[in-house]
From TrEMBL, chain A:
InterPro entries linked to this entry: Fe-S_cluster_assembly_SufBD, SUF_FeS_clus_asmbl_SufBD_core, SUF_FeS_clus_asmbl_SufBD_sf, SUF_FeS_clus_asmbl_SufD
Highest taxon, organism lineage: Bacteria
GO BP of this protein: iron-sulfur cluster assembly
Annotated NCBIfam families: sufD
All copies of domain SUF system FeS cluster assembly SufBD core, residue ranges: 146-374
Protein name: Fe-S cluster assembly protein SufD
Organism for this UniProt entry: Devosia ureilytica
UniProtKB/TrEMBL annotation, chain B:
Species classification: Bacteria, Pseudomonadati, Pseudomonadota, Alphaproteobacteria, Hyphomicrobiales
Family listed: Belongs to the ABC transporter superfamily. Ycf16 family.
Organism: Devosia ureilytica
Domain ABC transporter: start-end pairs: 6-250
Database matches in CDD domains: ABC_FeS_Assembly
PANTHER family: ABC TRANSPORTER I FAMILY MEMBER 6, CHLOROPLASTIC
Name of the protein in its database record: Fe-S cluster assembly ATPase SufC
One MF annotation (Gene Ontology) recorded for this entry: ATP binding
Matching Pfam families: ABC_tran
Length: 403, 253
């Protein structure tokens, strides 16, 4: 590794190093001292150059003493909240859920700055043990309130064998230049079925970072949906690991970016054992001068024969200045697998638009219908009716907020 | 003389540098069904797209009057609200847009443009059910995304159902018989004939005479090289079927 030349550190890195040292995370501090924040020369940050995009890091958060309105109301949901990194007392949990706390550092160590920083700085992690199927949607609100703050928080979930659950995490807070670094670790037991949604509703001034790590045992079924639409800069790492035969993951995500926004979903799915499958499907819609990124890597271990995995990213550009970047990668060590990738990118289909117009539907409405149609493939599989409606409302709000 | 439903005066249109319509003149009085026949590439389908307002074509000369109003300055949606309907030769598949959502949006948009109240959901459902039953369109088909996975016949039936719901004053049917077997042709023709009410006019564009046995036209026009070269009654279609288009100039197909 060529790290022997001095890297010039900026104010963001200086602050980060000081925060890490103060937390006793000397190793993480040392990494940043040596290498700095990742630039475009680092493969996995090629399109999201943190050194350029992240000029300052605000001070670490103090306790929140005010709370904005709920970011998303889902009737009937069981709510938990982490505000400025501190786990709030929750109401009585529904049957099947044990709410607890553990020391932070929930993510498996890997070569990624967001993972290192989260593991070093997240204090107490919220834990949920789902012993059996849980009917109500579990909503975890992660907030950053008050003055601009740097927050690292963490959630760890165990879903028991055969259990079914739906979890949505919403990220929101005050309109300030926060830096949020959120970790979620979820282990799915045998034949467990989970829908997990992460929805970034942060204010525009906020930089939102998240890492979602999943471990799937035999026969487990996972559906994930990452939605970026709030913050000015968003990056979600999604790391599913297929650990048991018959495990399947529908890894999905949606970047909705308007003028001035930059959103990045970076996936690395590991098929570790034979007979697992995954269907990563991402969509990006970009308007104004904005940038959406999806990187998707499928890794198939040497023993993982009969892996069936197909990555797809579809981009829709609604302006001439819009930018959508797509990087599929396959890293396959087994020899009897079906793996593929595809990317498409374009504007709204003119023939489709003409068809709707020819039936009397005005242009703006027709465009909205087509964009909704484009997104439907991601929202339709969310089965809970109230949750589906809430998500549809969020997406509609974005669509109608200026085409 | 009553105002014609459609009057086309010396219409010229081009796509890029190629002139496709070279002076079309046509008058359709209320309640009449006119057929346009012509060989492939004669500009028949272009005429239908130009009438509906597709952007790809540049109008270089002429006028199109719908019920006396020039519609060439109107967008496709405004032309629809003014009473024009185009049944597509190849209806577009639109994934993710439910057929019912689309129908409701179209109906209400046109009502709104005409200053009428939006339909209430039960009234809308009743209208769709009525229109659908005549064309053998069941609720399963309506639940699917618009035209997605529809067979050729289903697509054409769905077009005619839209026409029945939207009640245009002028319907342009572009090669509605293409891709239809005999049974489907009869269902579609029956649907079209049910909409002939003495007021509504139709322009039926077709390559074959076959369709005109089912939808009997008042006037038949022969289209060649971007203009109408002969007009006559329904017997003209039979003559064409027997003799081909060779007598009408242009290059042989």
């Amino acid at each position: 590794m060529r790290a022997n030349f001095p890297v010039r550190l900026g104010p963001a890195e200086d602050t980060l190093i000081a925060q890490l040292k103060a937390a006793g995370a000397d190793q993480a501090a040392e990494r940043i001292t040596v290498a700095g924040l990742p630039t475009r020369r680092v493969e996995s940050y090629h399109y999201t150059d943190l050194k350029t995009l992240l000029r300052t890091i605000p001070p670490l958060a103090t306790a929140a003493n005010e709370a904005s309105a709920p970011a998303l109301r889902i009737p009937g949901a069981y709510n938990l909240m982490i505000a400025n990194g501190a786990i709030q007392n929750a109401s009585t949990a529904p049957a099947g859920i044990i709410v607890g706390r553990t020391q932070g550092g929930v993510l498996t160590t890997r070569d990624d700055v967001l993972v290192h920083v989260n593991n070093a700085l997240s204090g107490e992690a919220l834990t949920l043990t789902l012993e059996s199927s849980v009917d109500p949607v579990i909503q975890i609100e992660r907030r950053i309130e008050g003055e601009a703050a740097h927050v690292a928080d963490a959630l760890k979930v165990f879903l028991a064998d055969g259990a079914t659950a739906t979890i949505i995490e919403t990220f929101s807070g005050s309109d300030a230049a926060h830096v949020g670094n959120h970790a979620t670790y979820i282990a799915l037991g045998k034949d467990a079925v989970l829908t997990h949604i992460t929805l970034d509703l942060s204010a525009r001034a906020t930089s939102h970072f998240a890492t979602n790590e999943y471990h799937l045992a035999d026969g487990a079924k996972l559906r994930t949906l990452i939605i970026h639409l709030g913050s000015g800069l968003a990056r979600t790492n999604v790391f599913p690991r297929m650990d048991g035969a018959g495990a399947h993951a529908d890894v999905t995500g949606l970047n909705l970016v308007s003028d001035g926004q930059h959103a990045d979903i970076t996936m690395e799915t590991l098929h570790a054992v034979p007979h697992t499958s995954s269907q990563p499907l991402f969509k990006s819609i970009s308007r104004g001068r904005s940038k959406a990124v999806v990187q998707g890597k499928l890794v198939v271990a040497r023993d993982a024969q009969k892996t069936d995995a197909k990555f797809m990213h579809q981009g829709l550009m609604l302006s001439d200045e819009a930018e959508i970047l797509s990087k599929p990668e396959l890293e396959i060590y087994a020899d009897d697998v079906v793996c593929g990738h595809g990317s498409t990118c374009g504007k709204l289909d003119e023939d489709s638009l003409f068809y709707l117009l020819s039936r009397g539907i005005p242009k703006a409405e027709a465009e909205t219908m087509l964009v909704r149609g484009f997104i439907a493939e991601l929202l339709d599989p969310v089965e809970d009716a109230e949750l589906n409606e809430a998500l549809q409302g969020v997406v509609d709000g974005w669509l109608l907020g200026g085409m | 003389m009553t105002t014609p439903v459609l009057e086309i005066r010396n219409l010229h249109a081009r796509i890029e540098d190629r002139e496709i319509l070279k002076g079309v003149n046509l008058i359709i009085p209320p309640g009449e069904v006119h057929a346009i026949m012509g060989r492939n590439g004669s500009g028949k389908s272009t005429l239908s797209y130009v009438l509906a307002g597709k952007e790809d074509y540049e109008i270089t000369e002429g006028e199109v009057l719908l019920n006396g109003e020039n519609i060439l300055e109107l967008g496709p949606d405004e032309r629809a609200a003014a009473g024009l309907f185009l049944a597509f030769q190849y209806p577009i598949e639109i994934p993710g847009v439910a057929t019912m959502t689309f129908l409701k949006a179209a109906l209400n948009a046109q009502r709104k443009a005409r200053g009428e109240e939006e339909l209430k959901t039960p009234d809308f459902m009743r209208l769709v059910k009525e229109a659908g039953s005549q064309l053998n369109i069941d609720s399963d088909m309506l639940k699917r995304p618009l035209n997605v996975g529809f067979s050729g016949g289903e697509k054409k039936r769905a077009e005619i159902m839209q026409m029945a719901l939207l009640k245009p004053s002028l319907a342009v049917l572009d090669e509605t018989d293409s891709g239809l077997d005999i049974d489907a042709l009869q269902v579609v023709s029956k649907g079209v004939n049910a909409l002939r009410d003495g007021q509504r006019s139709m322009l039926v564009i077709t390559h074959y005479q076959r369709l005109l046995n089912h939808i009997v036209p008042d006037v038949v026009h022969v289209f060649s090289d971007g203009r109408i070269v002969e007009s006559g009654d329904k017997d003209l279609a039979l003559k064409l079927e027997a003799e081909g288009y060779a007598n009408y100039g242009g290059e042989a197909a």
